[in-house]
Amino acid sequence: MQIGANSLLQEMQSLSSEIPTSGLNSGFSSPITQQVNSVAGSDFGALLSQAIGTVGELQSNSASLATRLEMGDTSVTLSDTVIAREKASVAFEATVQVRNKFVEAYKSIMSMPV
């Protein structure tokens, strides 16, 4: 059984319309909702590849700044290098957590009785 991204998104949107909004700000639109709506027609694999590519770019940028700082480049500051290193670290950690959730979901799906 294959689940299409569009059908899953449509089902999620129909279920979200059933949630009572009493006490909530109905005019609020979260950034996640905006992002999901903007990528509704995109391929999940392409989005995942793009996210991993972004993490790779952050890591290479961090390594480049660290090398330039070590070589004595005066245009690179220590704070810029540390910030780039932390951005790369946080992005990598988030990627690992997403991978762990995918593996966990896969295992739970595979253990379901048919």
TrEMBL record:
Top-level taxon of the source organism: Bacteria
Chief place where the protein resides: other
Intracellular or extracellular location(s): Bacterial flagellum basal body
Alphabetical UniProt keywords: Bacterial flagellum, Cell projection, Cilium, Flagellum
One Pfam family named in its UniProt record: FliE
NCBIfam families associated with the record: fliE
PANTHER family: FLAGELLAR HOOK-BASAL BODY COMPLEX PROTEIN FLIE (PTHR34653:SF1), PTHR34653
HAMAP family for the chain: FliE
Family: Belongs to the FliE family.
Protein name (record): Flagellar hook-basal body complex protein FliE
Source organism of this protein record: Shewanella eurypsychrophilus
